[in-house]
Each structure stands twice: as structure tokens, then as C-alpha cells.
Amino acid sequence: MSHHDALAIVTPEEAIERLQQGNERFLSGKTNHPHIARKWLEETCEEGQHPFATVIACSDSRVPVEEVFDQGVGDIFTIRVAGNVVHADETGSAEYSAAHLGTPLIVVMGHTKCGAVTAVVHKDKLEGNIHKLVHNIASVVKRSRAKGFKGDALIDDAIRENVQESINGLLKGSTEILRLVVEGKVKIVGAIYHLENGRVEWI
Hints:
Blueprint lengths: L2 H4 L5 H17 L9 H10 L5 E5 L7 H4 L7 E5 L7 H12 L5 E7 L3 H7 L8 H4 L1 H12 L4 H23 L1 H8 L4 E7 L6 E3 L1
Parallel strand pairs: 1-2, 1-3, 3-4
Antiparallel strand pairs: 4-5
Helix pairs in contact: 8-9
């Protein structure tokens, strides 16, 4: 695919399909490793970036976003933060990608065995700024406890609830993103990356 072809307008549904197909290649071990050739680097440097999706993911080193979706340079606008939480910085970054770069899809992707969620569930002592970082997760865990979940089931449910919390945070924190969603120009979806096998589950 040429850089010109990559700039073609992509619908939210087409963007999801690209990510799904890429994850299938990742799972099967038949990855294409696209868009890493020197020529592509030069073209994207000269012509600018035109990612087809924005992914807000956890900083966990076991969640390599581009590799998981078998994408390359200029394909995904990646925002990574511990616990895939959404505050002003993450919202502003997503707003930039949606409003200025024109990405039609925003994915909030949590993952199994998330350390940030687990720490809140276990009420671990969090030093420095970490407790501020995971502030949103505390309310998520409270909701999951109220459903009656315990143990690993509590962690799993809180991980899913945390994805939804971040999606809600984007919509509440950005009138621009909300406008684009209402107009049908941008779609926001949630996902869970399974560390144990590399599968992305869409939720």
C-alpha cells in the first residue's frame, strides 16, 4: 500500500476491521509488519501523519499496541498511561487525534491482570503520584464490589468497568469528541487485551 492509499478516508467500521484483521494475523503468527520500510518513514515524515485509529492503552510493557494489531509507523495514534485511565492529558491527546488528524475510531483498551486495577482492589499502599493516577479506578472497583464480585472475578469486572469509565471520561471531558461522535464522524469502542494469548476482545 502506498502512502497515498493510506490517506484514503476510512470509516469507523473499516478502522475496526483493520484492527481485527491485524490482531488475527498477530494471533496466527502470520504478521505483515507493515509500514516500517525506509521509504515509508520518509514519506510519512514529508507528508505528515494520518493514523486510521487512536488507541488509549495501558503502559504495561506486555501490551505492545502496534504489534498486537500488526500495524506500523503512522497507522495508530497511541496514547499509553498506566491503567488506561483518562484525565485531561489523555483526553486532550485523543481530541487532537480525532479533531486535527481525523482518526475515525478511538479504542480504549484495557488488559487482563492489569496491575493498576489489581493494586486498587488489593488496597495496596501507593506512593508518590500513583494514587492520583488511579483515582478514577477506586470508584470503578467500588461499583464492581457492589455487584457482589470477589477475588479474581472482582478484578476482571473492574478491568472492564474501567474501560467504560475511560470512555465516559472522554465524552464528558471533551465537547469536541462528543460532537464528532454525535455527528457519526468518530466512534469510541472498548476492548480487552488478553495477556495470556494475545487476543483482543471487543466489548
